[in-house]
Each structure stands twice: as C-alpha cells, then as structure tokens.
Amino acid sequence: MIDIKSLSEAVDVFKKIGVDPYGIEAMKNKTANLNIYLEKQPCKVANIIKQEMLSIGGDAAVARGSVACAVESTDIIIMGTRKQILALSGKIKNQPFGLSKISSDLLELIKNLNKEDYIFQTSRRKIKLGNKTLIMGILNITPDSFSDGGLFYDQKKAVERGFQIVEEGANIIDIGGESTRPGSKTVPVDAEIKRVVPIINALVKKINVPISIDTKKAKVAKAAIEAGAEIMNDISALNSDKNMAKIAADTGAGLILMHMRGTPKNMQKGDLLYRDLMGEIIIHLQKAIDKAKNAGVKKECIVVDPGVGFGKTPEDNYKIIKYLHELKTLGMPVMIGTSRKSFIAKLTGGKPEERQEGTAASVAASILNGCNIIRVHDVAAMKKVAAVADAVLRA
Question: What pLDDT is attached to residue 24?
C-alpha cells in the first residue's frame, strides 16, 4: 500500500518509477479520491449526477426514494477521483436545473484542492505560504485577556515583549487592545486605539516583522494601519463593523476572517449545536470572503480562521483540528489559534500558562491537517513544534 496525500506526492512517486511525463499528467488526478457533499438538491439533479457518475466509474449516494422522486429533495455525496469529478463537471456543464452552476463549483473546488502554495499580500509586502508554517506571536495590550491579561498592559513592557516575540522567531506579531475571551465586554474605540497605537509606533521603527491588528472595529484598524500595521485580524469576519472591508480595500492590508457564532460576550452561552460543523464554518467564511471581495479586497489579501473556542464546544474544537483540511475548499490560506485555550484544559487540566504541552499537540495536528499560520503565545517553543511538524508533513 502507498498513501498519496497530494498531487505533488503523486508526481514524485510516478517520477520515481519512471512514468512518462504524459502519463504523469494523465494519471495524477486518479490518485486522490474525493467525497463531495451537496445539500438539498432536487431529485432530478440527484438522479442526473448519479447516472453520470456511474457512467464514468464513480458513484453518488442519494436519499432512498429519490430515484422515483418520492422525496422533494436529497443531499448528495459524490464519490470519485479528481479525474472523475472533472469528467462529471464536463458532462453537466451545459445541462439545466442548476447543473451548470454545480459544474463550475466543482471545477473551482478541484482548483482549490490542488493549490499547495499561496501568496499572502499585505499593505507592505507579499508573504509566501506553503513551504513552512508561519508563527504569529500574540501580544495582548489588555488587563483582562484569558491567558496574559495585565502582563503587557504597561506600554514599556508591551514594547519589550514585542521585541522578544521577534527574537523568539515570530513571523508576524498580532497586537490586540480588547479581550475576546468568553464573556468579555467591548472596549470603547478611543480606549482601544490608545492601547495599541503607541506600541505599533514603537515597534514598527525597529523591526521588519509584519504587525497585525486584532480588532473588529474599523476606526481602530485604520489607526493601527496608519501607525504601521499591515494586517487586519477580524474575529467577526466583517460582521461587527460594516466599514472594515472598506478599510482593508482602501489600505491594501491583509485581512484575516474568523468564524464566530455570536459575540465574545455570549458566544459560549445558549445553543452550541451545529448540524454540520465544518460545513457551517465554510459557508460562513465564504460569505465573508464574498463580502470582502465585493468591497474591493484582493483574493491574495485574505486568510481564513475556523475560530477555535469561539462559539464551540471542546469536542467541536477537536473536530475542527481533525477536519481542518476541509477549509482548503475555500482556496485561501488557513490560520488557527489553539494556544492555551480551555478545550485543552478539559483533557490536561492546568492554568492557561500550564497548557503548553497540549497546545503543542494541537499545533502539530493542525499543521499536519493543512494549517499555514499558527497563532500562539509561546513563540519559541511552538516554532520548534512547527519545524518538526513541517518536516513530517513535507518528508
């Protein structure tokens, strides 16, 4: 048995045994099997897809009774190789009933799944993603963050910590002036600006590492970018402030869009049930991506984050890490933040600063499942974890 996880691995294996270049091109898409889930499709659509997939050696699972149209609609699971999915797209591209749209969506899906390298563009530079995992170091200028609240609230200590984060090997510094821990309340705009801008001003003059502003407020983002930040990290995915997308478009800043249900104040209260966890996260992020693009944000400027700990149960958070690779369907680089979070303590116990081993395990698993950027408190330690996980992934 041989386990081939990507097209590049397939090409390497074929070259090793001396396959003709034409044969490599013809066969590489046969090495990966895909299961594609379509929700609530009319029975006539389901029947056409099933027939076409069977005709090319694949298959499609549909609800009982859909063949005779005894049910109004059915979910569909399309099962086949990349080559068979591409063939299906060609067969249905000119057919009615919405099949042409499904055809184009399948092509886009395959394109996104084949993508292994990305360019993340900020207002000041282009950052290559794909060869190794980047480390985003957390710098909270807050009195009440769940892990390091108050530690760097003093401006001098915050600046010193910023330099330390760079020395420890961070590729990005993420500066926040408002806690987003469960139950936290919002901070006035002026207070948030007063917390973060002096730190950005002090750091940007002496470091060459990009600075990200962790905020969901457009005025804070604008002030931070004017001070030297070049990435906007919006936990609300443009849902808190309607002007955030415009600021990103006007400044050319990088834009990180995170999934969250509710607000930090109420996100862990009430109903946390998801019918389809990853599906709902992907749909939410796709809507945010579309909103950003419609405002003029370039595709190369966008990164997505599934929002571990934001409106999810501990079990949900572990599922997100396990199925993180599904976010590749969006065609964007993926960031994840698991550092010191409470879902880790459910298994390991300990205060936030005592959760390093659990964080390390979650970071390694995230990298192996498709993460491009990890957002962490313990930069030096997690950089070593990432180095080993990258070596395993790219062996």
Answer: 82
Give the three-class secondary structure for 50: helix
Question: In this structure, which amino acid lies at residue 354?
Answer: E
Instruction: Give the span between the Cα atoms of 374 and 366, in whole angstroms.
Output: 8
Q: Which helix (H) or strand (E) element contains residue 37?
A: strand 33-42
Q: Fill in the DSSP letter of residue 205.
A: T
β-pair type (134-140, 126-129): unpaired
Residue 114 has a pLDDT of 87
Residue 88 in tokens: 């299906």
Straight-line distance from the first to the last Cα atom of the chain, in angstroms, rounded to the nearest whole number: 17
**257 contact partners, CB below 8 Å, separation of at least 6:** 234, 237, 238, 285, 288, 289, 292, 302, 303, 304, 305
Q: How is residue 226 written in tokens?
A: 């004017």
For residues 350-371, average pLDDT: 95
Query: Is residue 148 a contact partner of residue 365, using CB atoms and an 8 Å limit?
Result: no
CA 21 vs CA 6, 15, 81: distances in Å: 17, 8, 20
Please name every residue paired with 258 in a beta bridge, in sequence order, or none if there are none. Answer: 305
Please report where in the chains the tokens 């749909």 appear, as a residue. 283
Q: How far apart are CA 302 and CA 254, in angstroms?
A: 6
- List all residues 6 or more positions away from 391 whose beta carbon is below 8 Å from its beta carbon: none
Catalytically active residues are 341, 375
Max distance between CA atoms of the chain, in angstroms, equals: 72
Domains of the chain, first to last: 32-114 (3.30.1370), 118-393 (3.20.20.20)
Helix axes 244-251, 277-294, angle to 10 degrees: 60
Average pLDDT, the chain: 91
The confidence score (pLDDT) of residue 148 equals: 54
Q: Nearest 5°: phi and psi at 305? A: -140, 125
